[in-house]
Structures are given as structure tokens and as C-alpha cells.
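A favour, since you know our C-alpha cells better than I do. Just paste the record in under my message, thanks.
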Amino acid sequence: MSILEHGPSSAVTLAERLDLSATGIRRHLEHLVADGFMQAKQERVVGERRRGRPAQKYELTSLGRERFANNYDALATEVLSFLRATGGEDAVLTFARSRWEGRRGHYLSLVEDLPDAEKPAALALALSGDGYPSSVIDGPGGEQICQHHCPVANVAQEFPQLCEAETEFLSDLLGSHVQRLATIAHGDGVCTTHVPHIPTVSNPQSSTPTPERLTS
């Protein structure tokens, strides 16, 4: 559950978070990896590389995520397949948009009166309450909303319109262009949405020539 909420984590980080020994955590992780519920990846090193091997980070596999799902994926895929066969790809996108449209009022009430800088964190909190455990981190040129679990990830593998509609919805709520950097549906550890910083507009009057300047 800790990795589900916080995303890929090293054994040391998990030990600190759960107040357990790193040795015990590693032993438990080895069993989960052997059972196919977890997988280990080398941590990406940014900047100067330290001595020794990079730490491994553990993340849930598709099988591991299914333990937190309601196992309605087969039915959802069947329904969307029928919709695509009868109405085309646009019908699937229309349906995907309607899922989020029904929640617009709730989400909008949580973010519309906030300063732009506070909206990503408030939105991440609201998504967490809806079954999309999320956090916000600083990134180059903006912030990144990281969703550590997606209830429809398996279905979205075949129907990317679900991700497309969600991205549009987030952009609309934040009042800013956003960019999807990664999705669980495509095999990434988290769904990552980049929210660029909105540049501060200077007062146009400050650069407007005065009559005295024009005539001097």
C-alpha cells in the first residue's frame, strides 16, 4: 500500500516510512518480486554518479495493481469495444469525456478560487480522495502531478481515450496547458502530468511612453 500511495520506492525508503528494518523489507520485497507482484528497477541517477551500484526502486507490476482493482476490467473492455464497433473511436472519446464531466462541479469547487500556484496540490488531494493517490513535485519549468494508481489502467492500455480525456479535464480545471509525461497504462510507474509555471505578466503601463518622452 505504501508503494501504491507514494510510487516506486527503494528498500531503505520503505524501511524508514514503515519503521521497519531494511533487511526485513528486502526479504519481503524479494517474495513479492518472486510472486510477480513487484518488480525492481535501477534508480536513475541525475547529476554526478556516486560510488557503488545505483539503488533499486521497487514498483507494482500489472498483477500487483490488480490486487487493488475491482476486477471489472473485462466488463469495461467489452462495453468499450462494443461502443467502438458501433460508434467509432470518437464515441469512445465522448464517453471518456463524459466520465469526468460529471465530476466537474465537485473538482471546480475545490480549485477555482485558489491562486494558480496552489491549484495543483489541491487537485492532487481531490484525486487522492477519488481513488487516484496523487502527489505534487517540483519539475523543470513547472510542477508535476504524480498519480500513483489508476483504477482503469488496464482498460486504458487498449483505449487511450481514457487518458486523453483525463488530461483535457486536468488542463481545463487548472486553466493551463498541461502535458502528460508518463502513464501507468503505457508501463510507467506513475501517471505524470506536467503543469508549467504561468509567467507573471508585467504592468503594460510601465513600458508605455508618456507624452513628455514622445516629445523630448
